[in-house]
């Protein structure tokens, strides 16, 4: 009878181990599927990063090109005494170019958006120092 009881225990142990192995096999299979999903996700992210990096480089090139082109239209006028423009540098420079280039030439060739004084204003009274 002991032999029968012993084999019953062995069968129970084997059955328990089989169940354990089946459960762990399913868990490993689920983990493998999860890893596969994450691998696909990581690959998609790598492609997106590559595409976005390329677009970023193209945009940086375009920005640099646009900045360079916008500077081509700038003029620097040297030799005008400081504070001669008064409160409205745009009106002063429009009048200046109209006077210098003639009435018929200036309005058709230029559009003056802004005028800036370059260089620091001296403190105190206005001077006749020329600006660059």
TrEMBL record:
Protein name in the entry: Uncharacterized protein
Organism in which the protein naturally occurs: Dallia pectoralis (Alaska blackfish)
Lineage, uppermost ranks: Eukaryota, Metazoa, Chordata, Craniata, Vertebrata
């Amino acid at each position: 009878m002991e032999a029968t009881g012993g084999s019953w225990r062995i069968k129970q142990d084997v059955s328990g181990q089989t169940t354990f192995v089946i459960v762990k096999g399913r868990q490993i299979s689920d983990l493998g599927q999860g890893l596969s999903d994450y691998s696909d996700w990581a690959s998609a992210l790598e492609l997106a990063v590559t595409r976005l990096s390329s677009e970023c480089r193209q945009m940086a090139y375009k920005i640099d090109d646009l900045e360079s082109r916008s500077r081509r239209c700038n003029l620097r006028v040297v030799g005008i005494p400081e504070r001669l423009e008064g409160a409205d540098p745009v009106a002063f420079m429009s009048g200046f170019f109209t006077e210098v280039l003639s009435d018929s030439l200036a309005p058709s060739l230029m559009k003056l958006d802004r005028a800036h004084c370059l260089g620091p204003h001296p403190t105190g009274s206005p001077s006749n120092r020329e600006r660059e």
